[in-house]
Design a protein that fits this description.
- By secondary structure, the chain is mainly alpha-helical.
- The protein is 63% helix and 0% strand.
- The chain contains 21 helices and no strands.
- The longest helix has 25 residues.
- 38% of the residues are buried.
């Protein structure tokens, strides 16, 4: 990295004696473009940029005078600059040069769009710019990421709400297949449940009630929350969904485990307590051992033949304190 930076400085020095300013400018920009083409993939894998970050930012500054639209249309480098600008919130680079076509470029290796890049970070201003420019709100990457799934994973609330409102305005014009990549995508609600983004989860569930119990990878949202020890989310799902959520747990024949199995496997005592308290409240019994529903769930056998207590006992092999 140090050699690359020194080499770049040498290029500046070597061109400073050139007679033509145009030749100097062309050579420096060419060198900056080469460095970016080489290191852009690495920069994606290291958000902080490390020692190389100053070099890459200088290169972006040097290329900035170029016509962004022209560069994007004929070069992989151009699309890389746009994606980087969105990821790092470079508003100045995007201002007045952002078109609908640029906002929807997917030339990165995994077909990520600029909107997806901006949603990973706290770049709400860039998110707004992209949405207003006509970015595809339902785009899907090579690995089936959508803007909503990225927003519900990153947890940047302001960006999530802006995207949520934009998607809500287009719902009536979408087909069922398109809706499945938008506000009815169960992966988004599961991501919120897993990461503890309760406010986001509430918004998704209240708009699409079936998300309360819709499984992903053979797990219900309650099971996802239990496996991640998201106690507040467990309480919300049981309080808001009530008997519907509990019935889904009992009827989930495709699932290898119920929520108690998921919590016991990870030794999540607080999750088990939240599940027991919530189910007892739904059954309207004063004490947990009076709940028939709770008794059925804690004695249910998984497809492997284990009860939650057996799962907890087996986990003692790997943990220091018992459940």
């Amino acid at each position: 990295r140090r050699a690359e930076w020194t080499d770049f400085e040498d290029t500046l020095v070597a061109t400073s004696d050139e007679a033509s300013p145009t030749q100097v400018e062309a050579r420096v920009r060419s060198r900056a473009a080469l460095i970016l083409d080489t290191y852009v993939p690495w920069w994606y894998s290291d958000p902080q940029g490390g020692e190389l970050a100053p070099l890459l930012r200088v290169c972006i500054d040097l290329i900035r005078p170029l016509d962004l639209d022209q560069k994007v249309s004929d070069s992989v480098l151009g699309s890389s600059i746009v994606h980087l600008a969105c990821y790092y919130g470079e508003e100045k680079l995007l201002h007045e040069r952002l078109t609908k076509r640029i906002a929807n470029l997917t030339r990165t290796q995994d077909l990520r769009t600029p909107l997806m890049c901006s949603l990973w970070q706290e770049n709400t201003a860039v998110v707004r710019m992209l949405v207003e420019a006509g970015a595809d709100l339902l785009a899907e990457s090579k690995f089936h990421l959508t803007p909503l799934l990225v927003a519900s994973t990153s947890g940047v609330e302001e960006s999530f709400w802006h995207l949520f409102e934009a998607l809500a305005k287009t719902d009536s014009d979408l087909s069922d297949k398109q809706l499945a990549r938008g506000l009815t995508d169960p992966r988004a609600s599961h991501s919120c449940a897993e990461n503890g983004y309760q406010a986001m989860l509430e918004a998704l569930v209240q708009r699409t009630p079936k998300l309360l119990t819709q499984p992903v990878n053979k797990r219900t949202p309650l099971q996802t929350a239990a496996a991640a020890n998201q106690v507040e989310v467990i309480r919300y799902l049981l309080d808001y969904g009530g008997t519907e959520v509990v019935a889904a747990e009992e009827a989930c024949s495709e699932a290898p485990d119920n929520a108690f199995h998921c919590a016991a496997l990870q030794d999540h005592v607080s999750a088990i307590e939240a599940l027991a308290d919530g189910i007892a409240r739904i059954d309207k019994v004063g004490r947990q051992f009076n709940s028939e529903t709770l008794r059925r769930l804690v004695n249910a056998r998984s497809k492997s033949g284990f009860t939650p207590l057996m799962v907890a006992a087996l986990s003692l092999i790997h943990i220091s304190e018992p459940t």
